[in-house]
C-alpha cells in the first residue's frame, strides 16, 4: 500500500499543530514466541495482536495517520486486516527491516516528506494493550521535549551481571531501584531529533540499540529525553503464555469500562 504522497501539512481543522504519525513496528518474526507465524498475527480476543495496536492509534484523536511496518511476506494479510477493520487512518503498510532498529529507520524513511517539526510515535506492534491516556500524554509531552519515552518503575531489584573467571554469572552492581524504569512504547519524537539521532547512529559501526529513546540519548546527548508514566498493562507479547496474560488484562479492562 503506497504512502500518501501529499507534502507535510497540518491536519484539517487543526491549523498550526504538528502532524502526528504513529508507526506500528511489526517487522519481527517472533523467535522467542516460536510458532509458524509472527506473534503480531496471533489472535487476541477476536482480533489479531497487531489490529489491537493499529486500532488504539486510529482511535486516538491526537494521531493523524498510522503507518505499519510489517514482515514483507505478511503485508497483504495486514492490508486485509486494515480494510476489514475499517482502520481509515492507516496510510501505508510497508516492509520492515531485518532488525527492530532497521524497522525504525524504515519508518523514518517513509516519513521523509514530513517536516522536522512533525511528530512520530514509534510503537511495538506486540504491545496491543497501549491505552488512550498513554498516547495522549506522549503527544502532549512532545510539546515540551523532542523525545519522550513511556516507562514504569521496576518492582523487582534489577542487577547488572558479569561472568566470573570460572564462567559463572555473578552480580557486578545493584543500581538504585528508585531510579530504574522499564521502558515501553510508544516512544515519541520530533522528527528532526530522531532523524539526527539515526543519521549519527547509522554512521557508527558499533551501533547496538534496543529502543529508540536510547538512540537519541546516545547520539543526540544535548536533547532531553523525557520520561512519562506508562502502564503495567502495556505488556510486550514476547514469550509463550503472554497471549493468555494479555487476554486476562483485556478482560479486566473491558470489565472496568
Ligand atoms: N526486525 C524487526 C524486529 C522487531 N520488530 C518489532 O519490534 C517489536 C518488539 O520486538 P520483539 O518483541 O523482539 O519482536 P520479535 O523480533 O518478533 O521477537 P523475537 O526477538 O523473539 O524474535 C515487535 O512489534 C516487532 O515486530 C520490527 O519491527 N522489526
Ligand atoms: C522498545 C522496547 O519495547 C522497550 O522496552 C524493547 O526494548 C524492545 O525489545 P525487543 O527485544 O525488540 O522486544
UniProtKB/TrEMBL annotation:
<comment type="similarity">
    <text>Belongs to the IspD/TarI cytidylyltransferase family. IspD subfamily.</text>
</comment>
<feature type="site" description="Transition state stabilizer">
    <location>
        <position position="39"/>
    </location>
</feature>
<dbReference type="GO" id="GO:0016779">
    <property type="term" value="F:nucleotidyltransferase activity"/>
</dbReference>
<feature type="site" description="Positions MEP for the nucleophilic attack">
    <location>
        <position position="177"/>
    </location>
</feature>
<feature type="site" description="Positions MEP for the nucleophilic attack">
    <location>
        <position position="236"/>
    </location>
</feature>
<dbReference type="Pfam" id="PF01128">
    <property type="entry name" value="IspD"/>
</dbReference>
<keyword id="KW-0808">Transferase</keyword>
<comment type="function">
    <text>Catalyzes the formation of 4-diphosphocytidyl-2-C-methyl-D-erythritol from CTP and 2-C-methyl-D-erythritol 4-phosphate (MEP).</text>
</comment>
<feature type="site" description="Transition state stabilizer">
    <location>
        <position position="32"/>
    </location>
</feature>
<dbReference type="InterPro" id="IPR001228">
    <property type="entry name" value="IspD"/>
</dbReference>
<keyword id="KW-0548">Nucleotidyltransferase</keyword>
<dbReference type="InterPro" id="IPR029044">
    <property type="entry name" value="Nucleotide-diphossugar_trans"/>
</dbReference>
<protein>
    <recommendedName>
        <fullName>2-C-methyl-D-erythritol 4-phosphate cytidylyltransferase</fullName>
        <ecNumber>2.7.7.60</ecNumber>
    </recommendedName>
</protein>
<dbReference type="InterPro" id="IPR034683">
    <property type="entry name" value="IspD/TarI"/>
</dbReference>
<comment type="pathway">
    <text>Isoprenoid biosynthesis; isopentenyl diphosphate biosynthesis via DXP pathway; isopentenyl diphosphate from 1-deoxy-D-xylulose 5-phosphate: step 2/6.</text>
</comment>
<dbReference type="InterPro" id="IPR050088">
    <property type="entry name" value="IspD/TarI_cytidylyltransf_bact"/>
</dbReference>
<keyword id="KW-0414">Isoprene biosynthesis</keyword>
